[in-house]
Amino acid sequence: MTQTLAITLWQPGPVIDDFAKRYLHGDLREVREEMVGRLDGLSEYDVRRPLTSTGTNLLGLVKHLTLSESRCFGEVFGRPFPEALPRWDDLGARGLDMWAAEDETRVEIIGRYRRVWEHSDATIEALAVDAPGHVP
């Protein structure tokens, strides 16, 4: 008598599931609020004061996060942020997002960052956790 042995191969599950997506999105929201909250109570001098040899200041970090998030959750998923921002390949704009220019206000910079949050949140909520993206 011959017996047949069936072998079930292990099949990997999703690397990340909807629970993890919600958890990570919650963390992102907390970190955003924490970053903006760090500016509360600081003088205009303190948010604009260069903190590194390259001139990076606190408002510049917010500008950098704005640009990075708009690209990562916008362009990468074919959902570009509707306001004008420097393109990935704009060599003339490289590094300019690390400090606030004299004509840029705190309200302007933080407002744009919050609008990017809304755009990013909409992308995160609209797409499946395993949605493919493309970095230009």
Description of the molecule:
The protein contains four helices and no strands. The chain has one domain. The model has no long low-confidence stretch (mean pLDDT 90). It has helices at 18-37, 44-48, 58-72, 106-126. With 136 residues, the protein is mostly helical.
How many structurally independent domains?
1
The fraction of residues assigned to DSSP E strands is under 5%
Low-confidence stretches: none
- Dominant shape: elongated
Report the C-alpha radius of gyration, rounded.
21 Å
Largest sheet: none
- Helical element count? 4
Structural class: mainly alpha
Helix and strand run: HHHH
What is the terminal separation in angstroms? 61 Å
Count all strands and give the number: 0
Q: Helix coverage percent of residues? A: 40-55%
Q: Indicate the mean pLDDT.
A: 90
